[in-house]
Amino acid sequence: MATVVGDNYDELADSDTITLVATVCVVGYEFSHWQNQDGDVLASGEDNKTFKITKAQAMDSIITAVFVEIG
Length: 71
Known about the structure:
Layout: E1 2-5, E2 17-22, E3 29-35, E4 41-44, E5 50-54, H1 55-59, E6 64-69
Antiparallel strand pairs: 1-2, 2-5, 3-4, 3-6
């Protein structure tokens, strides 16, 4: 699951930063990476569970937190 941190999303300027946070909700899975609608990896690894993007970039993309089954 990925959530957007903050309130008043509609009031943000296009250049404002949005923080996405990947949260593991199923036992036995871990965060792998963020990807866009074209399958391009935007950021990966445990250190990138929190991902920042501008509102303008977010409006033009579908960004997905990808999780993988542990071992």
